[in-house]
Automatic annotation (TrEMBL):
GO annotation (BP), single: response to toxic substance
Name this polypeptide is given: DUF1648 domain-containing protein
Organism: Neobacillus mesonae
Domain DUF1648: 143-192
Domain DUF5808: 320-345
Length: 363
């Protein structure tokens, strides 16, 4: 069990360690820079130092977890595991803040970086492009969810009065549930919720704010479309896989399914998803920055508008004047919210309430 938990930490370590290499080349530790400054030796050294420090932290956290090998209580190991993950994330964030402040100081020492003409580039044809794969693909997981509900209701009488809902790594049953329509329909309802969530994410990918490089708008547009379409496809595949996976415990209520199979199939899914996320991040980068492109057409002549003042700590976008709700992250891969927009808070609160409320209501 312990070795498997250590292996599961690797997909968490890799993104946090290598994020500086995957962000746009016009951004460094949450600070906007001219693209030609990205290859400066001092900035390259900062990226390497950040990777080394967070890498050493990962080794320390792993070593602490390994020293718990003598502990036989799975609950204690699970608590320690959760604490170590939280400690690593917080420590990595503190390291980021240190480098973020260093980057801000470096930018202040180079006022010429902001003296070039600052341009906001908007492609009026952008929304006419095929930015994501069709939402109709989510019909598949919806049908799987409906089939699970129908199957459960048809076979309701065959479900035992008490059925296992959780196993330990050793195969022992650690949690039971009493049969009722609410309890047996919990997973199918969660299937529908997760399908709607993935559908919402695909819409976010399509509707997120357009961000095109002023120095090379055509190539930047192409990269951004590739970026969105790749992540859209990944979300569709990952979402469909998860919905199909949730059928397994539902089937086990009626048919005898080996508990080891119920344990390892989800773990394999997690490993595949984590590996896919890492590979996609490496090959695509933020906004498609790692997708090959032609030479800059206006390199050094113009720069993107400096909107550092709207990025709190270089990570949280807060701009009341911007109507956009979603936009690309500055430090990381994917999208974030404009936290000055009220709808951002509505969306996040609804998602959290449903995620917490549905199990409480149906459990």
């Amino acid at each position: 069990m312990l070795m498997f938990l250590i292996i599961l930490m690797i997909p968490m370590y890799i993104p946090l360690i290598f994020i500086p290499y995957w962000t746009r080349k016009t951004e460094s530790f949450g600070v906007s820079i001219p693209e030609e400054a990205y290859k400066r030796p001092d900035l390259k050294k900062m990226r390497n130092s950040y990777a080394w420090i967070t890498g050493v932290l990962a080794v320390i956290v792993t070593a602490v977890l390994a020293m718990s090998a003598s502990v036989r209580d799975e609950d204690s190991i699970a608590i320690l595991y959760s604490i170590l993950i939280a400690v690593y994330i917080v420590a990595s964030f503190i390291v980021y803040l240190i480098f973020h402040n260093q980057m801000k100081n470096i930018k202040k020492q180079h006022p010429d970086w902001t003296k070039k003409p600052q341009v906001i580039t908007v492609n009026t044809q952008f929304r006419r492009q095929k930015l994501t794969y069709s939402n109709y693909w989510f019909v598949i997981p919806f049908l799987i969810s409906i089939a699970t509900i129908v199957f459960t209701l048809v076979n309701y009488q065959q479900i035992p009065d008490r059925f296992p809902t959780q196993y330990s790594f050793s195969g022992e049953i650690t949690n039971w549930a009493s049969k009722s329509y609410r309890s047996v329909l919990l997973l199918p309802i969660m299937q529908i919720y997760m399908t709607l969530l993935f559908l919402f994410i695909n819409i976010v990918i399509s509707k997120a704010k357009q961000q095109v490089s002023a120095a090379n708008p055509e190539e930047s547009l192409r990269q951004n479309i590739i970026f969105r379409r790749r992540w859209s496809l990944f979300m569709i595949l990952m979402g469909t896989g998860l919905i199909a996976l949730l059928m397994l415990p539902q089937l086990s209520m009626i048919y005898p399914i080996n508990h080891q199979l119920q344990l390892y199939v989800p773990l394999v899914y997690v490993v595949v998803v984590c590996a896919g996320t890492i590979i996609l991040s490496i090959t695509t980068g933020q906004g498609g920055s790692r997708v090959s492109r032609k030479a800059l057409s206006d390199a050094g002549k113009v720069i993107d508008r400096d909107d550092d003042r709207y990025w709190k700590l270089g990570m949280f976008y807060f701009n009341p004047k911007d109507p956009a709700i979603f936009l690309e992250k500055r430090f990381g891969i994917g999208w974030t919210n404009n936290w000055a927009h009220p709808l951002s808070w509505v969306f996040i609160i609804v998602v959290i309430l449903l995620a917490v409320g549905l199990p409480m209501l149906l459990g």
